[in-house]
């Protein structure tokens, strides 16, 4: 699952260093075309660090085997190659991701669309090598004709592809879902305090080594920036950020974002450069963060407030960057008043 890592959007753990005397440990590795890291309290469990890492990576491998479009034998790859309209039984994890995507798409007026795989390939952000030579509007419209969130129906553990050539790319949700699955493993092991991170998407539970909730820094949306934009405090919560300023194509003097507007098939071209969403489920936060990059600031905040979502948007204007907050986010911002 090679959804390119947005380095400048990495959400960084602040001031929670693990000392030699602490029962907290840190585990790192690679997954989904990016990296993962865990900080967790092992005080009440008997597993070794190696045994913990094996358990986590086994779960991540299951997620990749289900959701990675970069694995030819994955469940999603096989589904994309099936061009029939018959009902197909799918795994619980694929059902979860498709159901979350369907719901978030409906809640954001279609701004999230995981069926854009042909369009993503057209722009060179997918599996195939990037080649924009000779591309034209007709080819783009042909790719768009095979997309649409109404192109699949979920029913009783089965999927029916209403559009036979429908190809699904769950990358907008997959990292967050991977975070949730790892968190579930840690919960099952009885670990009460942890921070799980995959490619910048996080889920936290309990407290850090210093006994305080997990403080997470959201970096300023500038390439290679390490300056902090805001700090959020997390407990039993997940956070995901999407942005348009690192993974992009150069086209003349323009930068083409990897995030596609489902209404046009074109890379998003608005003033929003970063969207951060907090939610109990990281997969849901991940999905909303992508969708809110498509909508304008006003509509995004209207949707966030109507759903009670904790959202932070960073907008680039002629006068510089402006940060916008939904009403629901202030409880997580220790240094900010509504």
From TrEMBL:
Identify the keywords attached in UniProt to this record, alphabetized.
FAD, Flavoprotein, Lipoprotein, Magnesium, Metal-binding, Signal, Transferase
Superkingdom of this protein's organism: Bacteria
What SUPFAM superfamilies would the database entry show?
ApbE-like (SSF143631)
EC number of this enzyme: 2.7.1.180
Q: Which cofactor does it need?
A: Mg(2+); Mn(2+)
Report the InterPro entries cross-referenced here.
Answer: ApbE (IPR024932), ApbE-like_sf (IPR003374)
What binding details are noted for the cofactor?
Magnesium. Can also use manganese.
- State the Pfam families in the record: ApbE
User: Which reactions does this protein catalyse?
Assistant: L-threonyl-[protein] + FAD = FMN-L-threonyl-[protein] + AMP + H(+)
Q: Which residues form the signal peptide?
A: 1-20
| Metal-binding found in the keyword field | yes
Broad class of enzyme this protein falls into: transferase
Provide a Gene Ontology MF annotation, just one.
Answer: transferase activity
User: Which sites bind Mg(2+)?
Assistant: 172, 286, 290
According to its UniProt record, which protein family does this protein belong to?
Belongs to the ApbE family.
Q: What is this protein called?
A: FAD:protein FMN transferase
